[in-house]
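Hi W.,

Here's what went into the run:
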Amino acid sequence: MTLARTVAALLLGAALLPACSSSPRTITVDMRFSHYLPTAMDVRAGETVRFKLVNQDPITHEFIIGDAALQQRFELSHPENHNGKPGQATVMPGETRYLSFTFATAVSLIFACHRPGHYAYGMRGTITVKA
Amino acid sequence: MARRLLLGCALACGATLIATPAYACGGLIGPNGAVNLARTTTLAAYHNGIEHYVTAFTFTGATKGTFGSIVPLPGIPTKVERGGDWTLQRLEREVAPPVPKGLFLDHTGVAFAAAPEIILQTKIDALDITVLKGGAFGVGTWAEQHGFNLPPDAPSVLDFYARRSQIFMAARFDAAAAVKRGQRAGDGTPIHLTIPTNNPWVPLRILALGKQGSEVIDADVFLLTDNVPAMLPQPVGGRNLAGAPLATGMQLVRSERANASLMQDLKIDKGMGWMPKSMWLTFIRLAAPANTLGYDLAIDATGQNQPSLQAAGFPTGIAAAAKHIRDSLPLWLAWTAAGALTGGLLTTMLRRRLRTA
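Here's what came out:
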């Protein structure tokens, strides 16, 4: 009976282990005075990162992950609510919002805010996805 | 009475003939962010511990959308009222007699702002004025909630002011009311604030709100004080205060005892009866790229030559102030100034030598 319980416990532990080891890393990104901190991050290909986005400003900001082409497209479009879309978040004044994103392949990406004038003001940073 | 009528008519006519300056004193914000701003004019008069701050907001002619301005203040105003009819125009005429340019008026965006604790609310013509007390976050959030898209530099600019004084004036232009009143593009509404304070200062950095770094900010700043004011930073051509930084974007154009005619003309304007018999007139012309305008104008009118570093926006000391202004200077401008100074020195030395010879 004891042996059976031990085996069951080991099996349960083995089942839970992958889940524990794959729990995403959390990176806190502060938004203050219309700038991000940090402005550069390194992640691994295949890694899922949980971004904790903290808007300390009294104005709305965005956190949009993508390549240069995507950033340019958003820069030319009207502001919208990005919440619920992959790799995108709109963070209201004083709000803290979480965004999980899986980086599939090794590539250099940009994260940015496209509220009017924010990108030109310097509200952008880089994510280097390493193989 | 006759002088009052004559002066009113003369200045009213003058105002329609000259290209009217776009009066405003705060960071202008429109529905799509910052609004382009032409020259602004402000009077900061200080007497018996009271600052009289006079500026004007100009109707752009927009019939929809919200335009507004945020104006940081050195203290809680005891009175916010419609300004006199000609004070700003009379001061402009004093330093630059009007030259007829045509019948068209310049115009600019108009004003509005925001904050958590409402100290005072009033309506002057088509302007909804609210005086607010609160920190940068509260004021900014209030502004956002009232339909304004603050530009990205607003959080840091509001923080710059809130660390010194948490009093802001929000002026919102009611476009429908303006149209109903028959206001035309370019019509200005003067506002006169009476502010008890020991520490008068003129907000300048707010003028650069939302502007591109290289965009030149133009403003006419008039001071009326009991004594010759000491200023920080010093305008070019001003008195030399030991170690005080020089702001190359500010030019001291006039510094003299105000003549009797000007004093009389101002004193008979609405709300200007507080003026004593004699005051010192200072006229400063500001023409500075937005990215160099990281300061305000601190004034010491007591004669002690100690304008407040904090009021100028440099709480960390005079060295930091000098460094900030030096660092924000475009390189070409610094080299030009250095070249002019060296040339001047060489010329002086050469003249002395020739005289000696």
